[in-house]
Amino acid sequence: MPPKRFRRIVSKTMRQTKAHGKWLFTEIEPEDNLLLNLGMGGDLLYHKDHSTAPEKYQFKLTFQDNSELTASFFWFGYIHLVSNKELIKHKMTGKLGISPTDENFTAEKLASILSGRRGMLKSFLLDQKNIAGIGNVYIQDPLFRAKLHPLRKIQTLTEAEIKALHLSIREVLNESIKLRGLKYEKDLYGRKGEYGPEQFMVAYKEGKPCPVCGKTIVKIKTGNTSSYVCPECQQLKTSALGPAHGYRQLIQPRTSGRARPSD
Ligand SMILES: [Zn+2]
Q1: pLDDT 10s digits, 192-219
Q2: What's the gap in Å between 220 CA and the centre of ligand 1?
Q3: How close is the Cα of 211 to the center of ligand 1, in Å?
Q4: How far, in Å, is the centroid of ligand 1 from the Cα of 20?
Q5: Ligand 1 centroid to 192 CA: how many Å?
Q6: Predicted TM-score (pTM) of this structure
Q7: What are 41-50's pLDDT values in tens digits?
Q8: Are 32 and 82 in contact (CB under 8 A)?
């Protein structure tokens, strides 16, 4: 997006910012949204005045009180200005799934997202069209905490397992947010993140003992990504777990009389 297109936000007011997947959405009055994606990483920093601004940056906003917001991309990134009307049609964000930190991301919501879907659990959760905001770092421990193997078939999940998965996704993400993200990341004020190996349970811990049972954690290939699993706590169940205990009980009764597949 050419810089001159951003002129229409001059002297407008910036409102709240929300995270959605790898994107940040900031409302700009009266009807614009500043969309920012740090790509493979970068620094988004707020400065009380120019003295702490970095030498190099790709984007800068200067506010009326002379404070500044800078964005520096490590590799690539995106900054788009999109009106409320165009937002739903925005090619890169229009199809994003729900954010796992959204208050509407409940266990029931997760069950309904998984409902009727097939395939491997982990790749489904990483697909930003299903849930936008869980990457390969943050998927490892939620699966472990919920005692789920990454290659588990979605249609065999029980209601209890989905509840446990939902809870563990929220716990892991909230803990990282509280600690301002990973160690190589910074918050808006330049304070370093503290989330890392001390907090990880199985993530990036191959060869180390499982914190629950003591078995050795292994690293396995799961599609295009690597997974860290405890072979004892996260057994890959291949057979059906009994449709009577299926997760569909968690969601609203279906209006159609379609029978549940018995696999
Ligand atoms: Zn274990």
Answers
A1: 999 999 999 999 999 999 999 999 999 9
A2: 15
A3: 7
A4: 32
A5: 31
A6: 0.85
A7: 999 999 999 9
A8: yes
